[in-house]
């Protein structure tokens, strides 16, 4: 019988280190090749990016602006910090939008690249309703938000809200205050071209947290105390009185109305040589109704 043939274990052990070395070299070569390819692609990307962003062919031939009415074209371009001739692919659209939104008059902004070598800026400006006096004067938009400090010209050309502090105007993370909703309702009414509180008629809204609003107006009746609520009805009552004053004869000149109760209106007679105050008692026995 033949004996068992023993395997040469020593010979197998000698081959394993050689195979490990070959495997390691192959892995290193693959890794190095991948790194070189990645670096090469990166370099190609940089070169292509430089070629595109510096090529005269991609210079913007026009910048189209949509939505500007208060701001001029030059003011919008200065805010965006771009101009005709800039490379359309060199512009960071997000940064241009941020620069536009940093302008106090711009409420919303969008920036686009047009495929035919144009840049399009689409903006929405704040719609100013009034100036609010909080120790310093600021401009309110149609949402009741403060968006800029008021100039002297704006304080003259728009209604001014006085007698209110910021806590009464808008409390953070809280429902709108009664003062806020009341003033905003009157300001929206003042945007119309007709009516008793029409645009150009309303000069000032004086706020008293206890008794409500008093309006100072351009016209024969210089002031109206309207309190809180029922403003559409109170405006109609005041319009009826003014209409009657225009057509009736022999009635005294009325300088002020108290419309806190639309069913019981108190008039203040303008002071003249013949009469100084109305004989109609106002609230709490006050002569003339308004002070």
Structure description:
By secondary structure, the chain is α/β, with parallel strands linked by helices. The chain folds into three domains: 17-54; 57-125, membrane protein fhac (Ubiquitin-like (UB roll)), CATH 3.10.20.310; 128-285, Cell division protein FtsQ/DivIB (Rossmann fold), CATH 3.40.50. The chain has helices at 9-54, 73-80, 93-101, 152-157, 166-169, 178-189, 231-247, and strands at 62-66, 106-114, 118-125, 128-133, 137-141, 146-149, 160-162, 202-208, 212-217, 223-227, 254-258, 266-269. Strands 6-5-4-7-8-9-10-11-12 form a nine-stranded mixed β-sheet. It has a three-stranded mixed β-sheet with strand order 1-3-2, with helices on one face. A hairpin with a 4-residue loop joins strand 5 (137-141) and strand 6. It is elongated. Residues 47-52 and 273-291 have low confidence and may be disordered.
